Structures are given as structure tokens and as C-alpha cells.
Amino acid sequence: MIEKLHKFLLDEQTKKGIEKIIIRIAIISFIIHLSLIFLNQLNLFAFFSENDLFTNPISAIYTPFSFILIYEVYLLIYYLPKSMTIYIGKQYEIIMLIVIRRLFKDLSNISLDEKWFQTAENLQFIYDIISTLILFLLIHFFYKMNKFRVRKLMKLSETNAELLKFIKTKKGISVSLVPAFIIIGLYNIFLWTSGLIADGQDVASAVDINYIFFDDFFTVLILVDVLLVLFSFSHTDKFNKVIRNSGFVISTILVKLSFSVTGLQNVALILTAVGFGVLILWIHNLFEQNKLPSNY
Fold it and tell me: Fewer beta carbons below 10 Å: N end or C end of the chain?
């Protein structure tokens, strides 16, 4: 049953189909968002007249990026059974895209007067620009250190029974994550829209739309990462692999904590999380190079 569900939800053909659908939805949503901004500027759409997402055309880029993030969530689930490090790398890609999406939302709030460094919006923009460059570089190093391992894993012959059992376990987890994240997404959208409609702009502004869904998303990922660490003992007891997987859990927790703070603290936690993951993988690879003598 798990194999059938995994093939139905997470095989290569399904991935390509979802990719095409997401691209079309992203384009259509971008056009709709632009249209709503245009109507708002003509005072024909006054419901969200004071909302930052409906006052500046640049903010319309926020919507298609949200759908790109949805596809990245799917890719994270897709790669979970294939490689632990690619799965973690997708987490880092998601948090980087969240930062980039936040840039597009907050661009309309930038002040170009002489007090550039005295407004919170301008400072946040600077933090996000710098953190985007650093994150991009860290993710590059992360994948570069892992590329040979991934090629080896993709060509792995089906001879290691314990490893195959672990992969089947990861397939079961990935299959269960698909409906779980759909439910979390719909629930978060319902809470935000119902609060916005019922209580007005003041309540809506208290909820950071940048972190809707993803706060709960990374909470679930922490639980998944812990399960993966525990199940990994079924096929390996190597010290470096246990520490690597445990380090990835710490990295995910730091990403989750970043959603509870703003400004420089938020950026610092994100960079610390990804940087910690990169260092953990680098040290793990150093351990892998320590081969025991043949007569040991």
C-alpha cells in the first residue's frame, strides 16, 4: 500500500505534472494580484485598501513566489526517501525563498529619504539582501560537499536489506506528509482569512503573512527529523552519521525559532541554522575520509 501511494503521489511523472500545474497557477495568480492592485488604486477595490500587498505593483511578485514555495515543499517530501542531505538542503532552499519573498513584500515600504538607516523597513531590507547572498553561498557549499554521495546513492544496488528497510520507512513518512501539509496549509489559510474578514486590518497586521503555514511546517519537520535519526540506527551506528543527522535536527530547530523573532535576530538565526548544517556536513565528510586499515 505504501509503495502504491508513494508511486501515485511522489513518482517522477507526478512531480512533472505538479510542476506544470504550479507554473500555470503562479502566472494566473500574478495576473490576478496585479489586477486587484490596479482596481485598488482606482478605488474600486477598497476592502484591502490599506494592506501592503494591494498598494504597490511590486507586491504582486509575492503571490507567484508563494506557489513556488509550495512546489519546494513538495520537492522536500519527494527527496526525503532518496537522500537525507538533499531533504535538508530543500529545507534551506525553502527558508531562503521565504527571505526572498519577504523582500518583494517589503520593497513597497522602503523609504528613500535621507534617514535611510533610521527606519525598521530599510534595515530589514538590508538584512535580507545580505542574508540572501550568504544563504545562496552556504547552500552551494552544502550541495557541493554532498554531490558525490548523492550520485552513489542514486546508483545503489538493492543488496543492503537494512538500508532498503530504512528507505521504505522514509517512503512511509513522505507519503503521510502529503496530506498532513495540505491540512496544515488549508487550516492556516482559513485562520488568516477568517481573522482578516471578521476583525479587520488591525488583527490581520498582527499576523505575519510571511510565516503563515511555515511556522507549523517546520514544527512538523523537527518531529520528522527526530524520527529519521531514530530510524537511521536500523542501518548504521557510525558515530559521524549519527552526529550528522542529529546536527540536522538542531539546524531545523534553529530555523523554526527564527519565525518567533524579527529583524536582525531573525536573520542571525537563519544564517546560524544553515551555517551549522553546512559545518556539520563538512565535519561528517572529514570523518568519511578516515578509512580504517585493512588489517584493523
Answer: C
